Amino acid sequence: MLWVDKYRPKTLDKVIVHEDVAQNLKKLVTEQDCPHLLFYGPSGSGKKTLIVAVIRQMFGPGAEKVKVENKTWKVDAGSRTLDLELTTLSSTHHVEMNPSDAGFQDRYVVQEIIKEMAKNRPIDAKGKKGYKVLVLNEVDKLSREAQHSLRRTMEKYSASCRLILCCNSSSKVTEAVRSRCLNVRINAPSEDQIIKVLEFIGKKEGLQLPSGLATRIAAQSNRSLRRAILLFETCRVQQYPFTNNQVIPPMDWEQYVCEIASDIMQEQSPKRLYMVRGKFYELLINCIPPETILKRLLCELLKKLDAELKHEVCHWAAYYEHRMRLGQKAIFHIEAFVAKFMSIYKAFLISTFG
Amino acid sequence: MRLSLSSTSILKLFSESFDNTMVRKKKNDEENGKNKKRARHSLPNHNRPQQFEAFCQDFDHAFQASVPLRKRELWVDKYTPQCLEELPVHKKKVEEVKMWMTERLRNSKEEIQSHALVITGQSGVGKSATVHVTAAHLGAIVCEWNPPTPTLWQEHIHNSSSGTRYTSKLDEFEAFVARIRKYPLLPLSSSIGPRKPYVLLIDDLPLTNGKFAYGRLCNCLHVLARSARVPTIILITEFIKDDSNDNSARYCEDLKSSMERAGASKMAFNPLTVNSIKKILSKICREERCIASMEQIDRIAKASGGDIRHAITSLQYFCLTPVEMSSLALSEPSEIQSKDKPDAVNPVSQELSLPFGRDETLSLFHALGKFLHNKRVCVSPNGYGRDAFLLKERFARLPLQMDAPERVLCQAHGQGRSIADFLHENVLDFLDNESIDDALVVASYLGEADNLLAAASHGSSMPRAITSKYELESISQMAAASVAVRGVLFGNSHPSPSRWHSIRSPKLWLVERSSRQNQNEMLRHRNEACSSLSTSAMSVMATEYKPILKWLGLEPAEAFHVHNEKIRVGDKMVMDNSGRKESDDLELEMSGESDAGDDIEDW
């Protein structure tokens, strides 16, 4: 088992990083009926951990017995029926899923599944009707239509089911959904907090963790606790005992993006654009989300760029990122951004160096 | 109409009395040819089983006297070639067919190994006519497999309620082939006197749908070609390959090659030349005494695309309504074109001005080539002065050396999505390597097109009830295609010197497919290997777990193996696969400059 999973706090009491949030949630769940919840915050800040802990708080250890199901849903969509395949993770008390995996058919998933869940609600020992919890991940990736239908279903079935939504950015969730939930913002942990967690894990594993390495891992983790722990484990596998200046392996795809950035800086021509396209394809094949690629690429480019151009390049990156969301094929827009950058940069070079 | 009232009862009545003669004698057929046609006209939308059709013919005989239809005969039938000289087909081809037939007819069965001949060609090039005329010339009788009429669904329901069992047309054909192999053709009617030789003609292959049915047909023909004892001629109509999206073209090729393997001889008929069509048309004109100028005949011939049947029908139609061949259209072909090369006729603009003609089709690749090569007319700056309002230099482009892009798209049946993908894949090759600005313009226009397409395919922002939903979609599809094409044409302001480029099919499709595969794999992985209590998002899997798992030496998979013996093999394979992929990945990173394309291609 990965350390990330192994040392994930199981209950709200054991949470290290967001103690205050955890305590509040505990109060909320134990004292009264819980409203719909919306957790948002950057990736690797502990949203999932908190959600799992909250569910456990609600239903006790029974909620930990989960099974993974790959279920096909038959959805009646007006004139035809669709077959949607979606993986769910469920216990007797809750169901968790990523509706955005269904792509543009996500709205059917949202409607259909909540309906079905509401139909067979569990009855607890006292004969009282209980409620189920539905955890929806990546709500911000849902299409606008799906979010709308989510809003309606939320109201209709609120008696029998609670939604816990989880996303990175609440700005991509519609106002209507947000106002129906209790919003819980989970900050990215500070580097000190990350170091604390790493030291905790090191102690449990019985490792000597020099503080220099812990600091460096925390710095490289981008304030993502998950990544920090993963990196820590990698370091352990690669070299133990630890030394202060040991190499922390970088993520391969980030390195690849870095390479692309230097390709772009080297030469600005259609031929180079074509070559770069091949590299983007490589990344896309490995399922790196295009938004992440674009963001990373911008970071890498900014590192090497003259301050004069930074503003403009950022502007265009934002522009093409937006267009990418509107469009279907990300590569068209990534490539347009690269072409734009090349054009700007070439003009800059010519005007500077003649 | 006169038959339709009683058709059902008659059908029942006669279904027993007419035996299912699939091989009918051609002579008989010829006599009834036109009556049969009329019978068909009299019962539109009503496909009848074959017995009934036979009945109709006889029925029509009775009426023949009362309906004087002689004058209205179709010219196509009227001017069916009667002798070898009248055939419009190239002399050499006719000679070949004749040779083949004489050999088969004269020699006894032992000497010649194969009695099958496959004739291929587009429709209307005179395949059947050649066979008939040649046979007549040699004094042989042509027996045709008379294809049964296809059964409609309603009809099937009707039949099954009356107890008739449905047999697929393919079954019937198979049965026929089996029969024809076992028994020689029986002289059906009174063949007193010297027995005439037979030639078997299979003009109409049963329609097959799907791989399985097609395979059966293939087998069947293979067997037929190998074991036929009578000279057998199989006609295969070729379709113009590019405008059929389905696999019929490929099927056609397969059929041919399979029969060739069985030893059948093969002959391909080319589309008729414009001259030979013209010759025939003017002959018909003379006989019918209709007024059609040489030029008009010329245009009809050109528009027919080598299809004589079509040409004759067009001529008849043309003579029926003596329109003044829009003299306007004649006098004003687009100005630039006439200036540039006056002798080049523009088939498309003509086609629109005439009341006949087939739609010209372009292959997708042809159209793409046009767009990508971006040929423009060279005009001297003062040449297009008259109505040109002055644009800034960076917006001005020379006039295109082709029809409006939308029209070309229309001819190529271009779908917005595929056009955009193809252009995206190929356009960079056609840009001048110095002009990154062009690339920028092109890329941004393609991006626009993509957004339009996305709007079209989502389309859900519009209420479902609106009936014109599909129209709206297709409009924005068309708009997207147009934006993509015009963007490419406009953006490519310094086309690289024209040289030969192959047009690649979009790698993007491959990428998407393998990305989806990887995603599924990863999903499975997530479910199997991650023992955490919650799932993690796809993106997190891809960006964080996967690289780390790689560094950790694929640990979770091992852990998983302990848990689950059964899926082990499959999973192992998957892991190996991904391991290989990742190592490829690494290599790529090491070598840096190596071509990423190869890597994609071999998945």
TrEMBL record, chain A:
Alphabetical GO CC annotations of the entry are: DNA replication factor C complex; nucleus
Q: Where in the cell is it found?
A: Nucleus
InterPro entries recorded:
AAA+_ATPase, DNA_pol3_clamp-load_cplx_C, DNA_Rep/Repair_Clamp_Loader, P-loop_NTPase
Q: Which GO terms describe its molecular function?
A: DNA binding; DNA clamp loader activity
Q: Which Pfam families match?
A: DNA_pol3_delta2, RCF1-5-like_lid, RFC_C
Q: Which domain of life is it from?
A: Eukaryota
Report the record's Gene Ontology biological process terms.
DNA repair; DNA strand elongation involved in DNA replication
Q: What is its main location?
A: nucleus
Q: Where is the AAA+ ATPase domain?
A: 33-192
What keywords are assigned to this protein? DNA replication, Nucleus
Q: Does the keyword Nucleus apply?
A: yes
- Self-association state and partner proteins as the record states: Heterotetramer of subunits RFC2, RFC3, RFC4 and RFC5 that can form a complex with RFC1.
The protein's job, in short, is: May be involved in DNA replication and thus regulate cell proliferation.
Family membership noted in the UniProt record: Belongs to the activator 1 small subunits family.
Q: What name does UniProt use for this protein?
A: AAA+ ATPase domain-containing protein
From TrEMBL, chain B:
Locations listed in the record:
Nucleus
A cellular component term from Gene Ontology for this protein is:
nucleus
Keyword line: ATP-binding, Cell cycle, DNA damage, Nucleotide-binding, Nucleus
What is the designated name of this protein? Cell cycle checkpoint protein RAD17
User: Where is the chain membrane-spanning?
Assistant: none
Q: Which family does it belong to?
A: Belongs to the rad17/RAD24 family.
Ranges of Acidic residues composition bias in the record:
584-603
Q: Which organism is it from?
A: Kingdonia uniflora
Q: Which Pfam families match?
A: Rad17 (PF03215)
Q: Where is this region: Disordered?
A: 24-47, 575-603
* CDD domains to which the protein is assigned, alphabetical: HLD_clamp_RFC
- One GO BP annotation of this record: mitotic DNA replication checkpoint signaling
- UniProt-recorded Gene Ontology molecular function terms: ATP binding; chromatin binding; DNA clamp loader activity
Chief localization class? nucleus
